[in-house]
Amino acid sequence: MGRIALLPEVVRNQIAAGEVIERPASVVKELTENALDAGATQIRVDLEQGGVGLVRVVDDGVGMDASDLALAFEGHATSKLSESSDLEHISSLGFRGEALASMGSVARCRILSRPADAMVGASIVAEGGRVQEVVEAGGPRGTTLEIRDLFYNVPARRQFLKRTSTELARCVDVVQRLALAHDGVGFIMTSDGKRVFDVEPDMDFLGRIRRTFGAELADELVPVSESSNGMQIDGFVAPPRFARRDTSRQMWFLNGRMLRDKLLIRVLKDAYHGFLEPFKQPVAFLRLSLDPARVDVNVHPAKAEVRFRDSRPMFGFLVKALRAAVTQTDMATPGESLMDTRVRREQRESQTGYLPLPSRPSSGGQGPMVVREVSGRPLHEGGPPPAREFGAPDSTVASFEPKPGPAADAGEDWQTVDRFAGPFIQVNRTYIVRGLPDGFEIIDQHALHERLTYELMRKDVRENSVAVQRLLIPETVDCSRAHVGLLLGHKDALERIGIIIEAFGEGTLAVHGLPSRLKNPDAEGVVRDLIEILGHDGKLPDAEDVIEEVLHSAACRSSIMAGDELRENDIRSLLERAGELESDQTCPHSRPTRVRFTLADLEKAFHRS
Ligand code: ADP
Ligand code: MG
User: Disulfide engineering: 76 pairs with which of 97, 231, 453, 527, CB 3.0-4.6 Å?
Assistant: First the structure.
């Protein structure tokens, strides 16, 4: 007798279950998606013991008749596709016909269903792969599915389940995501009899986000809505300060399907590039609509991954659309967060992923603290128009009292009032304090100037218009012979970004020119950074990220330093020029350039509210 035999169906389904049904949250996902595919407008999800004891999903969708029920627990039984060409354009959430069969083989399941046009319904039971007869049963229009004692007959699987609270959290996450994706459908979710989540059918996307994650986040979101070439993106991006260490608040939906996709994680990374510390992940809620024929959803049994058929143009379109929205978010670093006690801060972090600022070393920060008022002079020739004046530029005492006037209304948008009015106070030759209509901000002069220098240099490089300042006397830098060779090997590429070097005997380089954007050029520092950056194997100076790194370091070394005394004019021109940037709220390393305190923050700090 041969050794090969076809596996019995129960075993086949159990094997499939290994891929489709990993934990209670997978049951919740499959059942809820089925309800959505059935056109439900109201879906109720009840759990017991984090879904291990029971997952019940009740919907008011099209329902199944007795003949459907007889097939429901069979493997590869589906109403959603019939021939292989259907796989090319799937618009339903399910299509593999595996979910119910899998559940039927690893749990105690019951379906009760009644189509809208039927007088009575029917029900069927499957337990550990044994499917019973369909029987007549009364019930409301729609379908109720009950999955009890998940993995009761597969101890090895049951053992891998986590604590009840963890499984519950995953189930809630699934329902929340599906609820976010499906306007027009109401959701109610309970756990051991207690309501844990709900949304009404008529709530829109933003309303659903607010219900799920709170107003603090929802009120700060900026909408995106763009289309190109048959692809549409809609949704919201959050200001960078909401970023977290993981991608759990990046919600992407493709034609109503929730998905996690490496490509889309990278899209968001690029859209927030320069506004976010590298280890942080932005928060965004985005819906993509795309002709189903342009994406392959049949990549993974749980259907969480997809393959885009033409990802390259899509990538560029998405990054551009998202970045435009990201730059509209309020990127200011709220001072209020700095005044939190540690406990409150930790609470906030766990809610929003917001982290306190890293303290940055500064050369001017050591000595005794000096507060110096920058001498007040009229802002412009002939003085500023009174309505735009909210400081007291002529007085010797700095006053941040807003003067009455249309632009100084408390509700006025920060962006529309004069952003560059004094007076300014320079603290410790490092920070600039400036009054605002509704509070004040503290600017890190070095960080802001660094951002400005960097952005201008990057623009020059992009536009191929780098201006070089030739040094009258070339500056020589001693370094090893290998390093001289390394940098000379990239001589031409460096020239394109404005760095002119020549050999100067063995073990010495001569710097002949640097970008004229650099105000206090530090040739030796630039060379040392280049060695550091290019010294890593395989890094070429033409690569976009290397150019960026070189420009960052040059900007950093050649900007106004902490410790430099600034006059009012210097400060104003710095602020004015920075105001033209895509964002003047973070430095190229994504640390804040300024921290803003609103009156509300002050009231909180002084226990007035
Ligand atoms: P798939 O969703 O991939 O088709 P499933 O195993 O999840 O496979 O479901 C099998 C079939 O059972 C579906 O194609 C659908 O016809 C039917 N079905 C499942 N759940 C429901 C429901 N809640 N309402 C109506 N029909 C359902
Ligand atoms: Mg399904």
Answer: 97
